[in-house]
Specification:
- Helices cover 78% and strands 0% of the residues.
- The chain is built from twelve helices and no strands.
- The chain is globular.
Length: 312
C-alpha cells in the first residue's frame, strides 16, 4: 500500500522553517518599503521619472552583481553570506527614516530626498545581488532530496503570502499613520529576520572546483547559447518583463488617474499576486507541462494583451 506524502514534510526540519520565516518576513519588508517609498516620493514630486530612476537604481547593481554573487555563493559559505546580507539590510529602513526625518525638518529639499532614496535603493540592489543566489542555493541543504518538491511548495506559499499581504498592509498603514510608522514596521520585520537566520545550525558545503570567474561566466553563457530551449525561454521572459513592468507605474495610477490614495495602491500592487495564486490553484488540476512551450507563448501573449488593456 503506497505511503501518503507528508504535506508538512519540509517544515518538520527546523532550519528550513527558519529560512521560510526569513523569506516571508524579508519579502514582506522589502515590498512594504518599496510601496511606501515609491508612493511618497511620487506624491511629493509628481514626476514619473522618479519611479523610473528608482527601478534603475535597484536593478542596475542587482543585474551586475548577480553573477558575482552566484560565484561567491559557490566558492564560500552561502549560509554566512545570507546571514551577513540580512544583517546589512537593517541599514535600509534606518536610512529611509533618517532621510524622511531630515526632509520633514526641512534640512534637505526634494532633490536631496530623492537622491538619498536612490542611494538607499542602490544599496538594496547590491545586497540583493549577493543575498538572492546565496539564500536560494542554501535551501536545498536544509532538507533531504525527497522533500525538495514539498520545500519548493512552502517557499512559494511564503512568497505569495508576502506579495499579496505586504502591499495591502503598506497602503493601509501609510493611509492611517504615514510613512515613518510603516518604515518602523519594516525595521521590526528585518530585526526578526536577523534573529531567525542567526539561529541556523552551522554547516559546511561541498567544495566547488575553483576557477576564474570570467571563465565560469563564459562557460555559463556558452551553455545557454548552445541550449536553444533555455536561451529562448530566458529571452522571452526578459522581453516580457522589460516591456511589461507596469507595477512601477502604479503610484501614478493611484494618485493622478484613479485617485485611490495609498490604500488603493496597495490593492493594485497585490492584484497580480492574487491572480498568480489563483492560477497556481488551477494548475494543480491542469498541469501546464504538456505542450509547455505552447502554453508559455500563450501566457506571454496574454500578459502583453492585458498590459495593453491596462494602458488604455
Amino acid at each position: 500500500m503506497p505511503r501518503h506524502s507528508d504535506p508538512y514534510g519540509a517544515l518538520r526540519y527546523a532550519d528550513f522553517r527558519l529560512m521560510t520565516v526569513n523569506q516571508l518576513l524579508m519579502a514582506f519588508a522589502m515590498i512594504t518599503q518599496s510601496v511606501g517609498v515609491s508612493y511618497i516620493l511620487y506624491k511629493i514630486t509628481h514626476d514619473p521619472l522618479v519611479l523610473g530612476f528608482m527601478g534603475l537604481a535597484e536593478a542596475l547593481p542587482f543585474i551586475v552583481l548577480s553573477l558575482w554573487g552566484g560565484y561567491m555563493a559557490d566558492r564560500y559559505n552561502r549560509q554566512r553570506i545570507t546571514q551577513w546580507c540580512v544583517v546589512i539590510s537593517l541599514m535600509l529602513p534606518v536610512s529611509y527614516l533618517l532621510l524622511f526625518r531630515c526632509f520633514l525638518a526641512q534640512q534637505i529639499g526634494v532633490t536631496g530626498l530623492a537622491l538619498g532614496c536612490y542611494a538607499v535603493i542602490f544599496l538594496q540592489g547590491i545586497i540583493g545581488g549577493f543575498y538572492s543566489p546565496a539564500s536560494r542555493s542554501l535551501k536545498p541543504f536544509l532538507i533531504p532530496p525527497e522533500q525538495y518538491t514539498n520545500g519548493a511548495t512552502w517557499s512559494t506559499i511564503a512568497l505569495q503570502l508576502a506579495t499579496i499581504g505586504a502591499p495591502v498592509i503598506a497602503g493601509l498603514s501609510i493611509g492611517a499613520w504615514g510613512i515613518r510608522p510603516t518604515l518602523w514596521t519594516v525595521l521590526g520585520c528585518i530585526i526578526v529576520c536577523v534573529l531567525v537566520v542567526l539561529r541556523l545550525s552551522p554547516r559546511t558545503f561541498p567544495a566547488v572546483e575553483q576557477g576564474n570567474m570570467l571563465n565560469v561566466v563564459k562557460e555559463g553563457f556558452a551553455f545557454i547559447w548552445q541550449t536553444p530551449i533555455i536561451l529562448w525561454c530566458i529571452s522571452l521572459d526578459l522581453v516580457s518583463v522589460l516591456f511589461g513592468g507596469v507595477v512601477a507605474l502604479l503610484p501614478i495610477f493611484a494618485v493622478d488617474i484613479l485617485h485611490l490614495g495609498p490604500e488603493g495602491l496597495g490593492l493594485l500592487r497585490a492584484a497580480p499576486s492574487i491572480g498568480a495564486l489563483l492560477t497556481m490553484g488551477l494548475l494543480t488540476y491542469f498541469p501546464p507541462t504538456r505542450h509547455a512551450w505552447r502554453n508559455m507563448l500563450w501566457s506571454v501573449t496574454g500578459f502583453g494583451l492585458f498590459t495593453l488593456v491596462f494602458a488604455v
